[in-house]
């Protein structure tokens, strides 16, 4: 049985904030490929909430995505309270929560590292979470008359889905192997 019990401690909350801020800073400053100049960039680190969620628990993944969205939108100058705090934050947090629940729940780092299906299952669940997130976020942007719905589905989909689906399985496998080898025991929250 894995030693990744569910808990809500001050330490976990500090980790959620650190992972969230790190996620937001990386999203704001490490996006070198512009898809729509000045508006949408390839979000290279879109996989962070899913990876954090699978390895450290659904709450960790959710708050990494939620806090990351708020930090990113503030740093990028695109903070819209109704959108960023409600729809975007919750749905990006969802991309950390769903893969964690479907792939990582109840499994130790050793089990994740040894699982030969981890590549496909984490990619599939990251894709599903990403598609749900894209449709909800783009509906919000269309409702607020910021971008047309299908235009934003296309461009934001390219921006987020590819890095999410490719990066999540590679990093989950790599980090699970390293954490298992190092003998790390982590609270799963």
UniProtKB/TrEMBL annotation:
Keywords: Membrane, Transmembrane, Transmembrane helix. The keyword Transmembrane helix applies. It comes from the Bacteria. The chain crosses the membrane at residues 12-30, 36-56, 63-80, 86-106, 118-143, 149-176. The keyword Zinc does not apply. PANTHER family: UPF0397 PROTEIN BC_2624-RELATED, UPF0397 PROTEIN SPR0429. This is Aminotriazole resistance protein. It comes from Pelotomaculum propionicicum.
């Amino acid at each position: 049985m894995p030693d990744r019990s569910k808990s809500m401690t001050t330490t976990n909350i500090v980790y959620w904030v650190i992972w969230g801020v790190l996620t937001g800073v990386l999203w704001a400053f490490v996006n070198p490929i512009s898809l729509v100049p000045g508006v949408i960039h390839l979000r290279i680190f879109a996989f962070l909430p899913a990876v954090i969620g699978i390895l450290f628990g659904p709450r960790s993944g959710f708050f990494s995505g939620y806090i990351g969205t708020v930090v990113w939108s503030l740093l990028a100058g695109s903070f819209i309270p109704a959108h960023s705090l409600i729809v975007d934050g919750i749905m990006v947090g969802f991309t950390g929560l769903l893969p964690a629940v479907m792939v990582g729940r109840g499994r130790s780092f050793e089990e994740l590292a040894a699982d030969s299906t981890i590549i496909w299952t984490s990619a599939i669940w990251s894709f599903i979470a990403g598609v749900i997130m894209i449709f909800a976020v783009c509906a919000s942007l269309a409702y607020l008359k910021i971008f047309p719905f299908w235009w934003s589905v296309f461009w934001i989909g390219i921006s987020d889905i590819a890095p999410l689906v490719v990066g999540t399985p590679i990093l989950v496998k790599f980090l699970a192997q390293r954490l298992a080898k190092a003998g790390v025991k982590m609270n799963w929250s």
